[in-house]
């Protein structure tokens, strides 16, 4: 009489473990991409909201963009968005709180870059007014921000990332 055993063989168990490992790896890679795109989307949303606030304030106040010779916003060149909100009560009608650095891991807060710096890239250089933040080194996030809000090329377009560590969002 032959005794039969029920259960899985070692080979069958190994196949199941390998399939589960492959599915887990695919899920982790997909999750990381989604997380980066979600962070980029939140930053783009903050940039656009800040740009709309500056445009609305510019139209309502009847002034143009503030240049490096104009310190009417806060008395400083390149003021932080936080200091603009604190100094200009009318601006608070359009933007109550400065955007967070969030996942940028940057060493400074958002600033209104109004000193006419020139940034090279693409076929021409640009100079002008930007919303800027310094110190972010998260390259995949920088690329995701540019892809979500611009042309996907970090060296040209509305969104730029300079070699000295500035994320720039052009306002003009």
Briefly characterize the structure:
This protein is of the alpha+beta class. It has helices at residues 10-61, 81-87, 139-149, and strands at 111-113, 118-119, 126-127, 130-134, 159-161, 166-170.
Mean pLDDT: 81
The poorly predicted ranges are: none
Distance between the termini: 89 Å
Assembly level: single chain
- Largest sheet, described in full? 4 strands, antiparallel
Notes on the protein architecture:
The chain has helices spanning 10-61, 81-87, 139-149, and strands at residues 111-113, 118-119, 126-127, 130-134, 159-161, 166-170. It contains three helices and six strands; from the N terminus they run H-H-E-E-E-E-H-E-E. The mean pLDDT is 81. It has one domain (10-170). By secondary structure, the protein is an alpha+beta fold. The strands form two sheets. A four-stranded antiparallel β-sheet has the order 1-4-6-5, with helices on one face. A two-stranded antiparallel ribbon has the order 2-3. Helices cover 41% and strands 12% of the residues.
């Amino acid at each position: 009489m032959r005794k039969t055993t029920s259960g899985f063989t070692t080979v069958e168990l190994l196949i199941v473990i390998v399939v589960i490992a492959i599915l887990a790896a695919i899920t982790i890679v997909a999750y990381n991409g989604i997380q980066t795109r979600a962070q980029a989307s939140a930053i783009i949303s903050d940039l656009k909201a800040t740009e709309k606030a500056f445009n609305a304030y510019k139209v309502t106040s009847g002034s143009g963009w503030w240049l490096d010779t104009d310190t009417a916003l806060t008395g400083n060149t390149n003021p932080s968005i936080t200091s603009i909100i604190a100094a200009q009560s009318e601006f608070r009608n359009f933007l109550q709180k400065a955007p967070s650095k969030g996942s940028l891991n940057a060493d400074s807060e958002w600033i209104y870059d109004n000193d006419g710096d020139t940034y090279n890239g693409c076929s021409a250089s640009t100079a002008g007014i930007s919303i800027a933040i310094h110190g972010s080194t998260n390259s995949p996030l920088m690329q995701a921000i540019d892809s979500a809000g611009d042309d996907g090329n970090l060296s040209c377009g509305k969104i730029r990332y300079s070699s000295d560590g500035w994320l720039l969002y052009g306002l003009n």
